Amino acid sequence: MKLGVNYLFIFTETPVLFWKKMSSYSDSELKKMELKNKIKKAVSLHVTLKAKERQEKRVAQKLHLHMPDINERKLITAVSTNNTERLQEMLSGNHNPNSKDNHNRSALHIAVSRGYTECVCLLLQNGADVNSQDILGNTPLHLAACTSNLQIITHLLNAGADINSLDMHGRNPRQLAESKLHILRHSWKSRTIEMTNLREQLQQVYRG
């Protein structure tokens, strides 16, 4: 029987007929069929992934999103996992300190939002743009103001962060910090926050 047999037809037949047909193949023919099927699956998967990649690029272009290359993704991963050793190695190897994800968030945005102070320092020391804006217009200082991380805020300000930079809603970092203070006050009045936690966060805001 030829290898060009319709495999779909085989699997729609009764078990007895299917067994007879499969028994008629030699071991070498079966191996060739198996290899052929594996190649088909691999090609199909490759085509599917390529189609998905093209679709993502079209969406990104339509929404004006950034499409990171492989080196950018590696650096973003190092920052996201707080892998300072790997980050230092990549920055020393001339990787872009301003690498961004597909939401235009820079490595510095991610380090700030997660409170990774050492990553923040490494990025700033290697030329990261302290006033880079993500798709929502947030700078790293906007994010730092929301987290009230005074150490990171200090590093950003020393690096030249613009306190008057506006996000897409027209808010600057100071206004975001004040909004957080309002939320903390409301949480205290409604007794939805532990007093020790409230005291610590208020101290951070007032010291800023």
Automatic annotation (TrEMBL):
Alphabetic keyword roster: ANK repeat, Repeat
Gene3D superfamilies: Ankyrin repeat-containing domain
ANK repeats by residue range: 103-135, 136-168
Family annotation (Pfam families): Ank_2
Name of the protein: Uncharacterized protein
Origin organism lineage: Eukaryota, Metazoa, Ecdysozoa, Arthropoda, Hexapoda
